[in-house]
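Quick one, tokens below. Sequence please?
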């Protein structure tokens, strides 16, 4: 098994009997809220150590955020690697054709005139998601 975050978190979910549907799936409001709370807790821990450190604590909390984010994607049946690839594709269009980069005063890279927004819906539809809760007749079968 590879050591990509998606594979590692899938291994965790299978070991602990957590949901991991094979296609993008709406979950119960209770589970959705629980996942949101877990991620908020980890994000707060990153904020807490971002300035004061130490560096090993920051690394730990950043990894926790990624781990929980992948877990949240997994319980929703989302292949997050594919979504990240789409976000990356979009982000790279912030670079002008001449290599120019527009930045905000704090250094954040801004969207230029060649920017193309990510199409996350299309990515999820390729994974079998039907917007507004429909059921795809082409979706692969769910795991047992
Ligand atoms: Mg933590």
């Amino acid at each position: 098994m590879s050591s990509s975050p998606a594979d590692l978190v899938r291994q965790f979910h299978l070991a602990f009997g957590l949901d991991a549907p094979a296609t993008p799936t709406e979950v119960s409001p209770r589970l959705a809220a629980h996942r949101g709370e877990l991620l908020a807790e980890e994000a707060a821990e990153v904020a807490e150590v971002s300035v004061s450190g130490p560096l090993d604590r920051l690394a730990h909390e950043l990894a926790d955020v990624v781990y929980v984010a992948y877990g949240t994607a997994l319980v929703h049946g989302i292949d997050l690697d594919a979504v990240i690839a789409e976000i990356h594709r979009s982000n790279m269009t912030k670079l002008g054709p001449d290599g120019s980069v527009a930045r905000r005063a704090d250094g954040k890279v801004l969207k230029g005139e060649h920017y193309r927004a990510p199409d996350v819906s299309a990515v999820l539809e390729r994974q079998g998601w039907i917007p507004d809760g429909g059921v795809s007749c082409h979706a692969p079968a769910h795991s047992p």
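Confidence is low (pLDDT under 50) at residues 137-144. The pocket of magnesium ion is lined by residues 42, 45, 61, 64 (CB under 6 Å).
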